[in-house]
Each structure stands twice: as C-alpha cells, then as structure tokens.
C-alpha cells in the first residue's frame, strides 16, 4: 500500500529477496521490474552477499487517476541456460486529501415570486470532491449572507438545497446575493455565488392621499382654480404599480394629471400626483372639503 502524495525518491518499499536453490553463478543474479511510470527498482549488494531489493517511487501517484497497479518483478539467475521467476507486486494507492470540492457552477441564478410559499425550493447547489471517504464528503454552509437573507432562506448542509423559510417582499428587497462554501471532511473548501431575483406580484393596492389647497373651499371660487392635490401611491413595480384615477361624474370638479409620475419615494413607492380643478361655481358643494 502506498499513499497518494508520497515523496518521490525517498519513498521506498523493501522487497523480500528471491531464492534460488542453486549456488554461485547459478543463484539469483539480477532483478528487473516491468517498465512502468511510477516505480523503479533499487538493488544493492550487501556485505554478506545478499541483495537488498527496494521498490522506489519515481513519479508521484495519483489515486484519482489510478488506484491499483500491478508490477511484474523478475528475478533471473546467472546460469546457462538462464532461469527466471516472476512475482506480481500489487500496489494499492491510498487516498490523500488533495482535492477540494468543486462546484458544478461558479454562479447559480434563481428567480421566484414574492408570494412563494414557505419551503419552496429556490435552487440546489452541488459540489463534488474527487477524493475518497471522509476526504471526499462534502457539506455546505453559507459563507457570506446578509441578516435579511438569512431570515428568508435556508440551506441544507448535506443536499445543498436552498429553500424559502420566511416571507419574501419584492418591495423591501428584490435581489439577494449569497455565497456558499462547500467543505470536505478535512476542511478543504471552495465557494460559489447564488443570485436570487424576487419577482414582483401585485400585492399592494393604490393608496390615495388628498391635500386641499383651500380649506374650506368657498363657493366664490373661480372655475379653473386648483382646489386640491391628490397623491396616489402604489408600492408595486411596472404595470402592478401603475394607477389610473377617475373622479365621479356630476361633481363640479375635474381631475387633471398634474405631473405624473412625479417622483419615486422610499422603497420604490411611486407617487402619482393629480390636481383637482374647480369646473364651475361650487354652490351646493361649498362645504365639500377635498
Ligand atoms: Ca486524493
Ligand atoms: Ca477532498
Ligand atoms: Ca399594485
Ligand atoms: Ca409587489
């Protein structure tokens, strides 16, 4: 058995000497090893006439490429005719933890609607480790995550599944970027990025704010006078956040788009502003406050 990562040159394995019943020239004279990439034979004559035979590592072993090797060792005598015997040396390469887990993708992207249910699977990250046993056992953990993201997403440390664990809200946070680390049993690690986009759902109704410019509105007011401003806000985006305003018929007021959309308020809330103009003398509506 030879460990992956053993140093070449200094890693040697002693091999038991071959026996030959003959003596002298007819005894064991030479050893040879079948040509192979990794091992060479080192034979030294000892003072007592025996030979010290060692298998010496010549080129590093890589268990991930080759985990078993068979080497044919031949011992030949010096007789005539020459006789030889062979032995097979079976080398098992033991694993060293020389590979970190590797993610399938450097960046994982996912998108889900803001009204997604708890436990919804967002994305599964996956890393593999070429080593064996504990050296190749991969676990996952968040390596960089905001407090907000931690409240709404969970990560299964064995399967790499990211799931929804809290209420999402596009209007509060529409994008998340998380880093995940995959570690093997001895702490070699690598990481990946997960980008999650939250998709808007029309979950906010428009809110109407009314500001009267004349309070109270008098009946002597001239038609065409601006008597109030209406602000309408919808926190949703795009078509979910567009508003249309209308005023009931038969009232002496006209609604005009004043300058829409005016500005964007905090948290993406858009504010649309409309002006209300007096269209005729108020008479019966004198008490009406916008
Ligand atoms: Ca290995
Ligand atoms: Ca490993
Ligand atoms: Ca809306
Ligand atoms: Ca929304």
TrEMBL record:
It is found in: Cell membrane. It comes from Amphilophus citrinellus (Midas cichlid). It is a single-pass type I membrane protein. One of its GO terms (molecular function) is calcium ion binding. GO terms for biological process: anatomical structure morphogenesis; homophilic cell adhesion via plasma membrane adhesion molecules. SMART domains: CA (SM00112). Residues 18-103, 104-208 form the Cadherin domain. Keywords: Calcium, Cell adhesion, Cell membrane, Glycoprotein, Membrane, Repeat, Signal, Transmembrane, Transmembrane helix. GO terms for cellular component: plasma membrane. Its main location: membrane. PROSITE patterns: CADHERIN_1 (PS00232), CADHERIN_2 (PS50268). This is Cadherin domain-containing protein. InterPro entries: Cadherin-like_dom, Cadherin-like_sf, Cadherin_CS, Protocadherin/Cadherin-CA.
